[in-house]
Design goal:
Elements: E1 2-5, E2 13-18, H1 24-34, E3 40-47, H2 53-60, E4 65-67, H3 76-89, E5 94-97, H4 106-111, E6 116-120, H5 132-139, E7 143-150, E8 160-167, H6 174-197, E9 201-204, E10 207-210
Parallel strand pairs: 2-3, 2-5, 3-4, 5-6
Antiparallel strand pairs: 1-9, 6-7, 7-8, 9-10
Helix pairs in contact: 1-6, 5-6
EC number: 2.1.2.2
Pathway: Purine metabolism; IMP biosynthesis via de novo pathway; N(2)-formyl-N(1)-(5-phospho-D-ribosyl)glycinamide from N(1)-(5-phospho-D-ribosyl)glycinamide (10-formyl THF route): step 1/1
Organism: Desulfofarcimen acetoxidans (strain ATCC 49208 / DSM 771 / KCTC 5769 / VKM B-1644 / 5575) (Desulfotomaculum acetoxidans)
Amino acid sequence: MSWLLGDREMSDFRLGVLASGRGSNLQSIMDACAARQLEAEVVLVISDQVSAYALERARAAGIPAVYINPGNYQSRQDYDAAVVEILLAHGVELVCLAGYMRLVGKVMLAAYPNKIINIHPALLPAFPGLHAQRQACEYGVKYSGCTVHIVDEGMDTGPIILQAAVPVSDGDDEDSLSARILEQEHRLYPEALRLFAEGRIVVAGRKVSIV
């Protein structure tokens, strides 16, 4: 079965961003929207961390910023249901994970089928999970990079939308490689969102086509 995503009539694609940390990818998305590099708007930012700087970035831009405390919910499903309720209330059409440190479960996936995306600092399927840049340095690869992918129930296992390669130098450590990969993340994530907003993403099983 194929899914054509982003086919719509509204002028601005409504984005919701989930973030747990500083929100540098959130900032790149907001900047791209403000510069009209994509016809989209961040309408909501949610974090599971009360001190996440991503919330401050959103508030500074006049975007609703919501902290949802996982400790107030008995299960991941209950927490995800609360997140979904707020996303739907704000009319979010596409959910963007930007340094969101929680696995997305069935509740959210059912509410947004093939409409939750993530960016990961490695060339998936290599080096999923935490500390991908450290894994790349320790393994001795010559290239790493970043991947924008659709989220499924696994950890960094969903269909791949876009990738960007970054050379790994002999003197690289986790910090230096992370910095260069992050530059590509800030370019690649808005580009993937532009394709969604233009209705050019087609998902068929594990394969994503750009039309």
